[in-house]
Amino acid sequence: MKYVVAAKKGWWLLVLMCLLILKVSAQENGSAAPVILFEAHPNQQFGFDAFLYKEWSSEYTTWENAPQKPYKIPVKSVGFGQTDLVNARLVNSDTLRMDSLSFRIGENNQELAFVVKERSLLTLELPPMSKSYLLKAFYRGREIGQLNVVPYKLRTEKVYLIPLATTRVNIDSLQAKINRIYRQANVQVQLELLPVFTHDEWDASTLLDNPSEIHERYSNQMHDLRDLYIETHPDIDKKAYYLFLVPGFTDPGMRGYMVRNKALGFVKVDKSPRLSQTIARQLGYGMGFFKDSWMDEGPEKGTTRNLMDLPSGSEMNHKQWGQLRFSAHSYSLFDNYEDVRTNNGFVAYYFWKEKENGELDLGNGNFLAAIKHPYKKNYLSYHLNIDNILFRPLFTLGGKFINSLHFVMLVVLVFLLFYGGRKMNRWIDKRFKRVRLARFGWRLLQIGAVPYLIYLMVLFVNLGYSWFEVRSGKLDEMHGLSINRAIGYMAVNDNVKHPNEVDLSSELVIQRGKTWRKEERMPVLYFAVRKDKNGEWNKVRLQAHSDSLVLSTRDYAQKAESHYMVFNYIDEKGSFEQQRVFNHTGNEITDKLNIPDPAKRILLFVNGYRPTSIGHTFEENFADIKKKGLEFPDSRNLVYTFDRYEYWRPWNAIDLKFQKRINPSETFYADGHFSVSTSNHRSLINFTTTSAAYPKRCSHNKKHHCYTSTSAKNFLGNRTVRTINMHRVRPNKSGFKKRLKSGHIAGRNIYQMLNEVPNRSENDTLYIVAHSMGYAYALGIIEELRGKIQFGSFYIIAPENASVGKVHLSEWQDVWQYGSRFQKGRGDAPCLLDGVAPQVKANGLQNENRVYIPEKLYKKKGFFDSHFIGYYSWVLEIEKGRRGYIAPH
After folding, report:
1. Of 664, 668, 666, 667, which Cα lies nearest the Cα of 888?
2. Predicted TM-score (pTM) of this structure
3. Which domain holds residue 476?
4. Residue 548 CB neighbours (<10 A)
5. How many Å apart are CA 592 and CA 581, to the nearest integer?
6. pLDDT tens digits, residue range 791-831?
7. Percent of the chain residues past pLDDT 90, beyond the cut
């Protein structure tokens, strides 16, 4: 019996011990696991970014297997090949042994030493590295922390401050404060204070009008101030940023303004701490193309310490570091909405002051300086001199004037419809047996016809504005303007009624006293120049105008293919002592009239669609389109000698690589940008719907799961479709035709530039690089230049709607089409295809003329990436003898 009792006691003892073990185990399991959280060191040289705001959660990598969740991996910036400090804080570390803790670099397993500052705080010195790496923390072999480390090379930017009045600025202190902020991305700003800028046309006390809140364009005042400065400083540094120090803005709370990704800014003069923060913030817009921190559903305004928050902040997140480091930087002083001077356009504009006797008022200068010739356009200016109260616009609706006469006509129209409706109802009652059905049909007809009749009425009334159009005559709205103000006023004058002229012409804008008038003339202006009483050639007046360039003293007579000024120096006997010819830019070409015309190689870049956003990837560039439906206006059909819209140069200078290969005598840039509505997508809604539903690139190039996709919801819910069928390949012929027709205008402008005396284009050879929408535009240029120039090579990159139009292979030496392999059943996996412009063979080409994106560029393929011009530098790496090879010249 006693053995039984003992056995029972032993059994209970065993149970008790097991329970004790389970309790201890439960306590251990219930306690929080140890974890390392990295923090910024107070003496760090560069930047540190940890997840703090839920609105930015998607910008940080999540560590899925972290011992404590959620764990967003922080990011540390360091200088390229430099060291820096970072803190690591131990959480739940009461029983941890420091000798069991280690920090190792992920790839090479290099272990880093650390210093214990206090029980739960450690400091590490990060080693000099040239590549990004993942730092991991371990305790007894178990991973308990992670940190992404990104090295950046030093980047230096020059920033000039331009005061409009005497300003006390400690430039060294200001620069040091700004660089403490930009050091986070290893960017160094070099500030230089320029002399005070004054000009008769600018009042230094002027407050600037409030500009656009989304930082996409400059105000007219800003244009004026910039233009005055450039006019007096033509040799400014072309690779620098310029900030005008201004007295302020109409809104007293506004401290600065800069267009995103541009090099021109305006900053309110302020005390040093606020001034440094304002400059740093404005450079964020221009240098880093940042947005306000609260944009795109970011944290609430005023809740962060970010540089782009208000009222002030100095921190940047790692995404902003990347934007500052990104290669697509612009030093342009012009926004993307304004016209920039170029020596082409159908209409040349001239401005001058005139005396009462018709002679030019030379002031203290010479007649060449007195005649201003600031720009060309494709249209004449549009002005209305309305002296009838019924036609005075009350407001605009859909781009059309609405005036009192519209309301009068509307009343008349309503009366006629009411009276006619009653008459019609009586007629229906007499003629139809089913009266109710007939009346119902009549009402439907009325509902459909009334809006159309109102629209026709508006158009009919607006025809009356042609009575008040000023083709030549006085311009009342310009009364009292200075010549520079007049130039600025006319620069933004758009002719919506006649947006493109057919023939070359000149528009003269002439001032007498405070009155301005305009006159339309032919492209060649002839001025008579005579001696004054002192024997100087200072008596100048417009003598004639013509469509031909004729110089009797040089036995020269040719039809003008551009715009010229001819100055006839007439002696006392009325004979020509000499004749001098200048082009519209003011360069004398008299001695070049009869020199031989050398054969030239012409390289033309034709860009496609220009997104309003700029980001790390081509997909990010379309952010504003997808979210807000923002687009730039259609092409102005002007041609430039530089990358005006920075479509090519920012992306690894792909245009310079083409230039090096082609070795052109001259290089031109044409703008083939048009609305998404002209593409096969046909609307922004269609484009955003497709791009949102389209699958991302599969993670493994041999295991694709992208062949089917879930389409957008309809009234029956989601449905599964073949991904390949999501591509919009039905040709938008009307949109293509619109771009092609506009290309003709650009073609005539190119012809004008190539045929400016003494040049002729017949012996020149044209090479074209066209991307995306630029393909249709390029075909229009080709049609215009056919027979007027020789064709060399045509490089077509990711063309949009390529099945419309036609390339004539026989007239080119080389034609290559580069893009993704879109062939149902035989092409690349759907996730790798160009979804912006599904790639079909250009009409007129053979399969042998097509070259596909190499397989090795797997990570540069996809809906957006396969279309991105920045990823097409591989076409210049094709070896000789291979399809698509671009031969050097």
Report:
1. 664
2. 0.80
3. 347-383+470-592
4. 12
5. 10
6. 999 999 999 999 999 999 999 999 999 999 987 667 789 99
7. 64
